[in-house]
Design brief:
The structure is a single chain. This protein is mainly α. Helix content is 81%, strand content 0%. The chain is built from six helices and no strands. The two termini are 16 Å apart. The mean pLDDT is 92.
Length: 149
């Protein structure tokens, strides 16, 4: 039963998260309604498919949200937009486990740093990077690893 929930949350995350990635690349902003709707649908799926996954999913979502909210308040809107904070809710509930969500966040941070340094080495005048694509990639890797392990 839990495997069905994990696969369902993976599909919902891809279906509703990928448009946020494309929009963040183009405009450096996301439509938060995709993230809100994905959070709601994934949370309801946890209740109906596998209720024992509901509380860890809520804890994971709240944990990532708190981390992003504090980072947003410390760094300001220029460094980390509030769209990234909203998208973290969706990422946390989609992964369903706080440790896996933190692992996905770690992957996202490493990918961001590697991309930034690669751009600087190549002489790009890159000032800002959209973070949602990296957060999406890290969360996707965490979800897939959680399904396989």
């Amino acid at each position: 039963m839990e495997l069905r929930y994990k696969i369902f949350s993976l599909l919902i995350f891809i279906f509703l998260g990928f448009p946020c990635v494309l929009e963040d690349f183009r405009t450096m902003k996301i439509n938060p309604w995709n993230a809100y709707f994905g959070t709601l649908v994934t949370g309801l799926a946890a209740v109906f498919f596998c209720f024992e996954s509901f509380i860890p999913s809520i804890i994971s979502s709240a944990g990532l949200f708190i981390i992003f909210f504090i980072t947003h308040k410390i760094c300001g809107n220029e460094k980390l937009g509030f769209g990234d904070v909203k998208f973290s809710l969706f990422c946390g509930i989609a992964v369903g486990n706080l440790l896996w969500a933190l692992a996905g966040l770690g992957v996202a941070c490493v990918l961001t740093v590697l991309t930034f340094f690669t751009a600087k080495i190549k002489g790009s005048p890159l000032k800002k990077l959209p973070f949602v694509p990296f957060l999406f990639s890290g969360t996707l890797a965490a979800i897939i690893c959680r399904i396989l392990i």
